[in-house]
Amino acid sequence: MSFLQLAESIKHRIIEYRRHLHQYPELSFSEYKTAEFVANILEENNIEVLKNVAETGVVGLIKGDSPGKTIALRADMDALPIQEQTDLKFSSNNPGVMHACGHDFHMSILLGAAILLNQHRHLINGNIKLILQPAEEKLTGAKKMIEKGVLQNPDVDAIVALHCWPDLPAGTIGLRKGPITAAADFLDITIHGKAGHAAHPHKCVDPIVIAGHVVSTLQTVISREVAPTDPAVLTIGKINGGTAPNVIPSTVHLSGMIRTVNPDLQKRMPEIIKRVVTKTAESMNGEAEVTYTMATPPLISDDSMVELIDSVVSETLGQDRVVYLENPSLGSEDFSFYAEQVPGVLFRLGTHNEKAESKLPLHNAGVIFDEDALTTGVSVMCEAAVRFLSKRTPTKQTLTGKV
Q: Coil, helix or strand for 7?
């Protein structure tokens, strides 16, 4: 039996895990019941487990029958503050919280892979570390897990993750050499003016007007200070200012995000943003405080790891199941912190079918994911782990079918 056939044989269990996790989503660093659930599944399958890593993280370890390198498989656990609007029978039971980014898929795939790999330790020359990480949506969980030593004891030589991707048909795998997701930086601005009566603006310095100019001027940063060949986006998503229609306030607060793919551009952006904002405010007799926080670097997959996934999919599922993505996503993923430390790859798992809701974007309250893609994800994870740790290619004869 192939890993895909083995995954199909336990598909009912993988779906059961996924639906339970979907029904009980939890926000970043609050994944207590989620962590308990996934840890229990691993322990029930006699897999060594370490709990409460970086607050709610879970780490499993599968030791092969032969010594060798260590590869890590990672899944994120947190959900989003979204009120689910699907008609699924297993929709979220937690008001205002939803797995709208597929993390329930990611966890259940990792659990399925863990079960099969643990049953086939004779194929494993080394170790497989299972990383179930909190707080990806806050872009802080991976860094905290690394700080707690998740890439050591034993030292990790490579790492693999997947992400649901509604843009691709269910069962296909999206790959890209080089950057696949963007860096994400946070921007907080406070505009200081001079408060007063709305009827006497000449006696005031209006921070709302200044804020409007700041927002408009910031849009010229991407079009005039960034090379057209460098993908980048700057969004101001939040503005707070004023208390009454007849009062010019003293301050206005703005918050936004900057996303870049070029690491050198990410390093340049703080100076550019601070210059544009402060000079714009000063030109209108105001002042500006700018806080620029670099949250996560771009995710740049290792070429050899991309080639590993390509060969796995091509040889076990078919060349037609591999899709090379022309452009990186300007979304961000804190898996990039792992990929900075060790060779890593994140591949896209296609999840749409004929239903319109399955083609909705991630983070949409109505998005659904085709569960037929679960076994594809499991088989690719299993095969990639075994192949990385072994010079030989697993054959149908070496797989026992025991689950």
A: helix
Map out the domains of the chain with their CATH numbers: 3-181+298-398 (3.40.630.10), 183-296 (3.30.70.360)
User: Hey, what are 147's tokens?
Assistant: 């700080």
- pLDDT tens for the chain, 403 residues long, are 899 999 999 999 999 999 999 999 999 999 999 999 999 999 999 999 999 999 999 999 999 999 999 999 999 999 999 999 999 999 999 999 999 999 999 999 999 999 999 999 999 999 999 999 999 999 999 999 999 999 999 999 999 999 999 999 999 999 999 999 999 999 999 999 999 999 999 999 999 999 999 999 999 999 999 999 999 999 999 999 999 999 999 999 999 999 999 999 999 999 999 999 999 999 999 999 999 999 999 999 999 999 999 999 999 999 999 999 999 999 999 999 999 999 999 999 999 999 999 999 999 999 999 999 999 999 999 999 999 998 555 444 456 554 4
pTM above 0.85, yes or no: yes
Q: Are 77 and 131 in contact (CB under 8 A)?
A: no
Residue 244 CA to residue 147 CA, distance in Å, equals 47
Please state, in angstroms and rounded to a whole number, the distance separating the CA atoms of residues 81 and 331. 17
CB 156, CB 342: distance < 8 Å: yes
